[in-house]
Design brief:
The structure holds two protein chains of two kinds. By secondary structure, chain A is α/β, with parallel strands linked by helices. Chain A contains nine helices and ten strands. By secondary structure, chain B is mostly helical. The two termini of chain B are 23 Å apart. Helix content of chain B is 78%, strand content 0%. The chains are: A alpha/beta, B mainly alpha. Chains A and B meet through α2, β6, α3 and α5 of A and α9 and α10 of B.
Chain lengths: 267, 292
């Protein structure tokens, strides 16, 4: 889905540029430094799972990439173009960057005063300038693809948590993002609703979507990730393909974290 | 999850008028009638009942006060109410605008606007802290004494409206603020993350949700405002309460006040019912889950 006529000029999709690159990212809230120099490179079509204890900075990292948080140091490139950091000057149009990056939140954050359909069509109409009929047609197609066709006219509070989260994913997909970020999207769901949402994510991965996923679902991460990154103390202390990271973690902090997870019966 | 179609309205209606509800209706009607009858009995059997009925509820006096008789030296309470309505409408429009400005200033975060924020905060504290009646006196008697050209020669009603706007804008700005704050920050994040601009987020996501929250308290303040237009009579404006006062001073019968009270009720009750209607409609629409 090539859309380059909107002023955002992504670099070549070469290995050098990659889909997303982060260098030396630092972010503090007051005196508390949450991210202390994060480096990460994501190639197109890669699925990266971020794991780590609560408060290790996974969500903050995603929010920084989406420019919802102002970073203190470091640089972020999206498809070769700097979107945050010293080399961007003041020339970054946040709204332009965000329309290429989808993010889905733990608490769904659907718009409660709008129907499912309107939730999905609002941004394509107001941001991309799609006509109402085009936006609706796209919404119907996406909703049906994810088993939500019958929910079009419902308001979010009539949907189960799992349905709401799938609508939130569809809402982000409707902007046809180049990168999808999922922030612990199953953490607020009842256990029996988790599988539906994970299936949707799996389908996206199979479709080649580049994804950055913060998750507590270790089994899922092992299943779906091309690479798993373990965050601790505001840094990525270890990253490896899931098979290696889960079976032979090299860092002591990773080992301790995985042991706790295993003891809790979550792996 | 099973598919949820449109709710069956006929089923719901029959449930409202079902056997259990009919019994409840009979019970509540009976208890209401009993209580009202008891209160009426106390009123009619009180030692001073006849005197009170003559002074406050004399039909002839009530009619005279309602239609007025300038030759006899008193005004029509009914006609005077028209001034209350005009003051109310003018004040309401100005309050909605002024309060929104104050609320947005107080919600702003930029360091440049700090002086304005301080002014707005002090204003809200002062305007809410000073009794309305003192504000009416201060503006109604103070501004004319300043002898400013064009400003000091307005009618009492204009000063009254100014006082109402000064006082009520502070309250209403807090209602606006509560509404804006009631929309969770995550809604802003969700809207912005989709690429919507700050203005578009406000327009399509924040304001529609805030307005829903504030309409009932807003209308509540306006019901109160309708009544408080009576205070402007203190400046000499011939509004309903002032006209009633003139009648009672002339004829020595207080039935004119009863007329004024009934007229104010006729004004405020529809607004109160309208408020309830809006709340119920919003709830029904969200429960129905269909349409926009």
């Amino acid at each position: 889905m090539g859309r380059t006529d909107d002023g955002f000029s992504p670099g070549e999709l070469s290995g050098a540029a990659g889909a997303l690159r982060i260098e030396g990212l630092r972010k503090s809230f007051g005196a508390h430094e949450v991210l202390r120099g994060v480096d990460l490179a994501v190639a197109p079509h890669e699925v990266i799972c971020l794991i780590g204890a609560s408060g290790s900075g996974k969500s903050t990292l995603l929010r920084c990439v989406n420019l919802l948080e102002r970073i203190d140091a470091g640089t972020i490139w999206l498809e070769g173009q700097a979107i945050a950091g010293p080399s961007t000057g003041r020339g970054v149009d946040e709204n332009l960057v965000r329309r290429h990056i989808g993010i889905v939140f733990q608490a769904f954050n659907l718009f409660p005063h709008m129907t499912v359909e309107r939730n999905v069509t609002l941004a394509p109409m107001k941001v991309l300038g799609l006509s109402r009929s085009d936006a609706v047609a796209q919404a119907i197609e996406l909703l049906e693809r994810f088993g939500l066709g019958e929910k079009r006219a419902d308001y979010p509070d009539r949907l189960s948590g799992g349905q709401q989260q799938r609508v939130a994913i569809v809402r982000a997909l409707a902007m046809r993002p180049r990168l999808m970020m999922l922030d612990e999207v199953t953490s607020a769901l009842d256990p029996e609703l988790v599988a539906d949402v994970l299936d949707v994510i799996r389908e996206l991965a199979e479709g080649g979507m580049t994804m950055l996923i913060a998750t507590h679902e270790m089994g899922f991460a092992r299943d779906i990730a091309s690479r798993v990154c373990f965050l601790a103390d505001g840094q990525i202390v270890e990253q490896a393909p899931p098979a290696r990271l889960f079976s032979q973690p090299s860092d002591e902090r990773t080992r301790r974290f995985l042991r706790r997870i295993t003891d809790a019966g979550r792996l | 999850m099973e598919a949820q179609g449109l709710p069956d309205l006929s089923a719901r209606r029959s449930r409202i008028l079902g056997d259990g509800d009919r019994r409840g209706l009979i019970l509540s009607t009976t208890s209401t009638v009993v209580v009202l009858a008891a209160l009426l009995a106390v009123f009619l059997l009180a030692p001073g009942s006849g005197q009170v009925r003559h002074t406050f509820f004399n039909p002839a006096d009530m009619w005279q006060a309602f239609v007025g008789n300038p030759k006899a030296g008193y005004y029509s309470v009914g006609e005077a109410l028209w001034l209350n309505i005009r003051m109310f409408v003018a004040a309401e429009i100005l309050i909605l605008i002024a309060a929104l400005i104050v609320a947005v200033i107080r919600q702003s975060t930029g360091p440049v606007l700090l002086p304005l924020r301080v002014v707005a905060t002090v204003y809200v504290d002062v305007a809410r802290g000073v009794p309305l009646i003192l504000v009416i006196f201060a503006i109604g008697f103070g501004v004319p004494a300043l002898q400013l050209r064009g400003i000091s020669t307005q009618s009492a009603a204009v000063y009254g409206v100014a006082a109402l706007v000064f006082s009520y804008s502070a309250y209403v700005s807090e209602v606006y603020r509560a509404g804006l704050n009631s929309v969770h920050r995550s809604q802003v994040a969700a809207a912005r993350s989709l690429g919507l601009s700050g203005w578009a987020s406000m327009r399509y996501v924040i304001l529609p949700q805030a307005v829903r929250t504030i309409i009932p308290p807003l209308l509540n303040d306006f019901i109160s405002l309708q009544k408080d237009t009576a205070l402007v009579g203190l400046l000499g404006a011939i509004e309903a309460n002032k006209a009633a006062e003139i009648y009672s001073d002339t004829v020595f019968n207080y039935s004119s006040y009863t007329v004024a009270a009934i007229l104010f009720l006729l004004l405020t009750i529809p607004l109160a019912r309208f408020t309830d209607h809006l709340i119920a409609r919003d709830r029904a629409r969200r429960l129905a889950g269909a349409g926009q």
